[in-house]
Amino acid sequence: VLLAFVRRTAFTADTRVPALYREGGVDAVLREVSLMSGDHARRRYFEALFKATPSLSESETRRALEIAGQMDSDFEVAQTLIAIAKTGKIGGGSTAYLQAVRNIESDFETRRVLTTLVKSATMDEEAMTLLLNVADNIESDFELAELLLAVSPRGLGSNNARDAFFKAVATIESNFERRRVLSSLLKRADNSEEVQTRLLQSAAEIESDFELASFLVSFAKKYPDMNAAMRDSFMKAADSIESEHEYGRVMQSVRGTARRTSGMF
Predict the structure, then answer these.
(1) Is the four-CA dihedral 121, 127, 131, 132 of positive or negative sign?
(2) For 157, which DSSP code?
(3) What value does the mean pLDDT take over residues 84-108?
(4) 104, 171, 106: which is closest to 132 by C-alpha?
(5) Helix (H, G, I), strand (E, B) or coil at 100
(6) How far apart are the two ends of the chain, measured CA to CA in Å?
(7) What gap in Å lies between CA 247 and CA 209, rounded to an integer?
(8) Which long-range contacts (CB under 8 A, 24 or more apart) does 47-50 make?
């Protein structure tokens, strides 16, 4: 009865986990965690384990992730995954980690976990692509935007990561949040011409004249020497602006005239 109580409440986690670890290492702790009946208790034991040994092997990390993936509470799963991410030892367990994230229904908790992963762990291009694909599960424009803002400083080095990033951006319905994400990429100094073109293509889907104009003005300031193809993409995006004031603001930023190339006016 006492053991069942301990496994359900984890009230002795701070002393029992170190004892288990001394007796049988990480394996002993993970075996005990797998026997627990409550998500809160499992999370408490995981956190105590990471305090006792911040370094887990790749196989141990995968076992921990398998157990975490079986938890039902979004909050407890998120807390556990965040604790694992902060160890910086996910390595080859990225796929298992992100699969566990997929089991989280809450947009807030999903974003919280993925943002911590981006900031804490070393991620290769494959892992970053997987993360961005998982981001498709986030329905909240704000939460998705917050995640993409955390990703953008890491760069979009591979074609797959780049495609996954802009695919995620395309699901953002809020004009403000989309412009906020796209503008964050303008802060990078190493955007290729392909990324610049993708930025303009994505911006062209912004329906708010103000938000679109604000982005295009920032784009023109960042890239004043656009080549002919880039300028055509820029003007095509600008032509969707209906407000004469906002259109004039964009044209002034490229030192052009306020004559529309599409003949709308």
Answers:
(1) positive
(2) -
(3) 79
(4) 171
(5) helix
(6) 81
(7) 8
(8) 47/13, 47/79, 47/80, 47/83, 48/13, 48/14, 48/16, 48/17, 48/18, 49/17, 49/21, 50/83, 50/84, 50/86, 50/87
pLDDT higher than 50, residue 95 = yes
Measured CA to CA, the distance from residue 99 to residue 95 in angstroms comes to: 6
- The residue-averaged pLDDT of 71-98 equals 81
Name the pTM for this structure.
0.80
The residue with greater pLDDT, 109 or 158, is 109
Within 8 A by CB and 6+ apart from 249, the residues are 213, 217
What is the CA angle 76-106-40, rounded to 5? 10
CA angle 41, 43, 48 (to 5 degrees): 95
Our CA angle for 130, 134, 136, nearest 5°, is 130
Can you tell me the mean pLDDT for 55-59? 77
Whole-angstrom CA distances from 3 to 23, 49, 156, 171 are 17, 19, 50, 48
Mean pLDDT in residue range 45-60: 81
